[in-house]
Amino acid sequence: MSPKRRLTKQQQARIARHNQKRLDTSQGPDPAEDAIYLAAEPGLILSRFGKHADVEAEDGQVIRCNLRRTLTSVVTGDRVVFRRARQSQGGVDGILDAVAERTTVLLRPDFYDGLKPVAANIDRIVVVSAVLPEFSAHIIDRYLVAAEVTGIPPVLVLNKTDLLDASQQKALEDQLQLYQALGYPCLWLSAKQGQGMAELLALLQQGTSILVGQSGVGKSSIMNAILPELALSTQQVSDVSGLGQHTTTASRLYHLPGGGQLIDSPGIREFGLWHFSPEQVTAGFTEFQPLLGHCKFRDCKHIKDPGCAILQAVADGSISEQRYQSYLRILTSMAEDKPNHF
Ligand SMILES: Nc1nc2c(ncn2[C@@H]2O[C@H](COP(=O)(O)OP(=O)(O)OP(=O)(O)O)[C@@H](O)[C@H]2O)c(=O)[nH]1
Ligand SMILES: [Zn+2]
């Protein structure tokens, strides 16, 4: 093994000075840059695209900034330190100096590229499902596992309830009852007719939320209903292209009229679970958590193992058979779908 390279005293001092300047928001990293930029200020990333980001300053202004090359990961929702340029250059009006530590980060497992951060500092994941194309408790369970493992509280929204007849309604009420009993807030919605929209808005008024769910469940319809600003831009896109859909996959943060933020992130609407370990999936089932460590064998897989506390709970009905079957399906699908590098 080669000996560790030691830094000289001068090198150490230079690095220390550099780090100190980066942390000190009252001074830029390089005094020569003060001729180009104003004082550092805190900001919020609304959107990131390539080498640029739209940063919202505390006065509400949006400033398009260049990213320092040292900043490798900057995503929508990041809290940052930036400086306005004294003069606009080529449509760019500032520079992004530093990114604050994130409370949460949503990672998108890309089949080819590995894990990619797509949004940061999210307080709530709104899992949208619908009675059409088809209601699937299993898919809801996948989203719930992802949310639990990521550490962001989920909320369930059932959309298109205007299409239900009485018997379908009863069956779905039972389904949502199960999730409600697990501690997940559930909301009945019709983005089309407006039922439940006021309750949803009230829920989104605190913190930053993101909508996820399968294609066609009505995420865009919900967003357009609560964000006139977005409805307008979608409309404009549809007028030009005739496609009526977003042409970009970039995430963007919007402020809601009565408070709270909503991140529109087409790239994370459906996410895989490849990057989770089987143990994480187990822990992602909230009702399994109190039983973990109570199985007879320490390495219990909770599948066929004798003395398994989870299997026992399924047998006596305190854990729902449906949720347990969902758990098994997730484990199987992970083993089948997993790309080599996860
Ligand atoms: N009946 C009914 N239809 C709805 C409702 N909400 C949305 N839809 C319809 O469902 C279809 C899909 O809605 P979108 O909002 O595009 O769904 P999405 O989840 O954004 O789909 P992707 O963009 O593919 O991810 C559209 O034809 C909507 O008009 C609702 O509450 N009731
Ligand atoms: Zn077990």
Please give a structural write-up.
- Residues 112-271 form the CP-type G domain.
- Its EC number is 3.6.1.-.
- With 342 residues, the protein is α/β, with parallel strands linked by helices.
- The protein folds into three domains: 11-99, OB fold (Dihydrolipoamide Acetyltransferase, E2P) (Beta Barrel); 105-110 and 122-268, Rossmann fold, CATH 3.40.50.300; 278-337, Ribonucleotide Reductase Protein R1, domain 1, CATH 1.10.40.50.
- Helix content is 31%, strand content 25%.
- The chain has nine helices and 13 strands.
- Strand 8, helix 2 (137-150) and strand 9 form a beta-alpha-beta unit.
- Residues 1-5, 23-28 and 235-247 have low confidence and may be disordered.
- Bound molecules: guanosine-5'-triphosphate (GTP) and zinc ion (ZN).
- Guanosine-5'-triphosphate binds next to helix 5.
Bound molecules: guanosine-5'-triphosphate, zinc ion
* CATH uppermost class of the largest domain: Alpha Beta
The helical percent reads 25-40%
How far the N terminus sits from the C terminus, by CA atoms, comes to 29 Å
Gyration radius, in Å: 24 Å
- Order of helices and strands, N to C? HEEEEEEEEHEHEHEHHEEHHH
- Tally of distinct domains: 3
- CATH T-level fold name of the largest domain: Rossmann fold
Q: Would you identify the CATH architecture of the largest domain?
A: 3-Layer(aba) Sandwich
Outline:
globular
Label the structural class: alpha/beta
Provide a count of the helices: 9
Overall pLDDT confidence: 85
* CATH superfamily descriptor of the largest domain: P-loop containing nucleotide triphosphate hydrolases
Per DSSP, what share of the residues sits in E-state strands of 2 or more residues? 25-35%
Family: Belongs to the TRAFAC class YlqF/YawG GTPase family. RsgA subfamily.
Keywords: Cytoplasm, GTP-binding, Hydrolase, Metal-binding, Nucleotide-binding, Ribosome biogenesis, RNA-binding, rRNA-binding, Zinc
GO molecular function: hydrolase activity
EC number: 3.6.1.-
